[in-house]
Design goal:
Two copies of one chain form a homodimer.
Chain A (H helix, E strand, L loop, with lengths): L2 E5 L3 H12 L6 E6 L2 H11 L6 E6 L5 H11 L3 E4 L6 H11 L2 E4 L14 H4 L2 H7 L2 E4 L7 H12 L3 E11 L13 H9 L2 E5 L2 E5 L5 E6 L3 E7 L4 H8 L5 E7 L2 H12 L8 E3 L2 E3 L1 H8 L13 E12 L2 E12 H8 L3 H18 L7 E4 L5 H10 L4 E4 L7
Parallel strand pairs in A: 1-2, 1-4, 2-3, 4-5, 5-6, 6-17, 7-12
Antiparallel strand pairs in A: 7-15, 8-9, 8-12, 10-11, 11-12, 13-14, 15-16, 16-18
Helix pairs in contact in A: 1-13, 3-4, 7-14, 13-14
Chain lengths: 400, 400
Amino acid sequence: MRKTLIIGCGGVASVTIHKCCQNSEIFEEIMIASRTKSKCDKLKAKLEGTTKTIIHTAQVDADNVKELVALMKDFQPEVVLNLALPYQDLKIMDACLEVGCHYIDTANYEPEDTAKFEYSWQWAYREKFEQAGLTAILGCGFDPGVTGVFSAYALKHEFDEINYIDILDCNGGDHGYPFATNFNPEINIREVSANGSYWENGHWVETKPMEIKREYDFAQVGKKDMYLLHHEELESLGLNIPGIKRIRFFMTFGESYLTHLKCLENVGMTSIEPIEYEGKQIIPLQFLKAVLPDPASLGPRTIGKTNIGCIFQGKKDGQDKTYYLYNVCDHQECYKEVGSQAVSYTTGVPAMIGTMLLLQGKWKKPGVYNVEEFNPDPFMEALNKWGLPWIEDHNPVLVD
Amino acid sequence: MRKTLIIGCGGVASVTIHKCCQNSEIFEEIMIASRTKSKCDKLKAKLEGTTKTIIHTAQVDADNVKELVALMKDFQPEVVLNLALPYQDLKIMDACLEVGCHYIDTANYEPEDTAKFEYSWQWAYREKFEQAGLTAILGCGFDPGVTGVFSAYALKHEFDEINYIDILDCNGGDHGYPFATNFNPEINIREVSANGSYWENGHWVETKPMEIKREYDFAQVGKKDMYLLHHEELESLGLNIPGIKRIRFFMTFGESYLTHLKCLENVGMTSIEPIEYEGKQIIPLQFLKAVLPDPASLGPRTIGKTNIGCIFQGKKDGQDKTYYLYNVCDHQECYKEVGSQAVSYTTGVPAMIGTMLLLQGKWKKPGVYNVEEFNPDPFMEALNKWGLPWIEDHNPVLVD
């Protein structure tokens, strides 16, 4: 029996596990492990009877390598799919090396106390994974993840050389609340209040938070304001796409969302410095999280679509060429299928696909790799099959 | 020795007590009583040596009539100046009646659980005070307070009949924070999120919160946006100014202030419904108060001026006439003089003046009265003497 250990049981993990259970030929036996076992048990109870996949659950503290090792030794998985917090990536990689499991995740490691996104920590594991004959696949969600696969696919089939990539992440969903965050608000808020940056001519160009704003007319969604953010795939694509001159990442935010966020920041409600309240130390951001709608509660009420993709500019047969690859995903359809809206869906499905390709041996080579370093074709085929079909546009509107 | 009991020791009380101590001929002996005796002791320590006024302090729970009565019986004050919370007015009036003390306050009673401002509860005490031969003066701050005195003065000296009054309360101060409230944020927020209303032709006209907005160019401050609010003096002036057709109250708010307030309301941070947080029931608005700058800390850093006054329109000798009476108060000068900025100063000084006039017998008549029911002349004189000089404008710009 092929065994997969999935660590984490939040919104994304729930989608991935639903999809694994739709794909029992590959995911014959899975173990769901998280800090709160009752969440895993609840999901197991929901899925059992609908799938041939055998589901186990366990409690694990992903910060504790010993606990992780004990769990892996007991369950003996081929691969560990890490859907826990980004703070825990290195601990889980350590445990994989100790036990001898392949590794895959969706978001790069960051230290808990600094909002610093970079691959250096995980890339430092290359030799260890190589020597152990193990594969580690980094950042296999949508962005990073599918955006890297799109880039590899474009390079393989459409271009001789790609010079410019603009990654456009649009969420045209409406949950009906004046303000709510689609996933952990802490991570949302960190992302928006950090400096932006893009990759140009071999180095980073830094911007102030939300300094660069563009409007774009997204297919099936319409016109949205989008802002240049730093995003982790810029770092790996900058190295892995030969001939690249510039890569940028844009994400849409509504004016109201940004105003709320700014006001909350101004009054100190997004601070992670604890304050004394009635004899208790309380972190304002944590209290804000408790006041805001639970991201998990947004699923049933979110309508509209996401549109995420990459606009490529480069050369083919000596000619300038542009090419846009994107996916459109409907919040309500996702919710009907797996009980989560499109933001979780678009991350959770690629995580299942990457794990599948690793188990099938199609994406397996000793070392630590980003997704664009593998053959994109089986992944592109799987996207169409497993709920994230892609659309090509050979004449897209470009971003200034 | 003439004795005055002052209940409360917040920002306004601190100003009033400073001014009483500048006026030791009238305020020979005072007792400062509040829930937290250490605050009273601190103020006493600051003032002793600078004044001939004898200062006592005491702990009292102003919600507890028995405690209040015991304190009054012990100290034997002539008058009780209530600068505690508006929720406590009736308890303090009950105690005054029981012991036989005159009463004066700055804000009308409101039940703690509803944002309902009206005089009915206190006016119901008229007969009791009359029969006891005691005077109760209601609402003797700036607005209500000086605005009523201005109205009585205008009626006495400038008009045969006043038809329209617009009360304009402008705070042109800047504390340098993106958002902070000048006094208890809970009361600030209640005021702004309540429906507005004005008095017209003998009845109330209700508006949505902040529905009516005007720009006005305030002397010594400049152009500010102001919004129509309900305010308690509209109720008493509507009854006490014969011939009145309309009274409105406008207060200035900056756009940024209102945006912050709206966002905080939208996310639930101004709610008074407790939420469960780490096993503790926490009221979001109370937690917000703890995160925001302490209003008392704004004093040293607030610059700029307030401009509060009344624009009257009516008839004199058969002719139409307009008349504007206002005071301009400088935040930094107030802070230098009494350690509080102008918002507390403009309320605290009139409270001292009203109490003085009561002690002098100039504003003494058995019953319950609003300030406009007394002779305005000695009060107007005292305003000039005690730090709130007024300015007349016989040709003001009117509000639409």
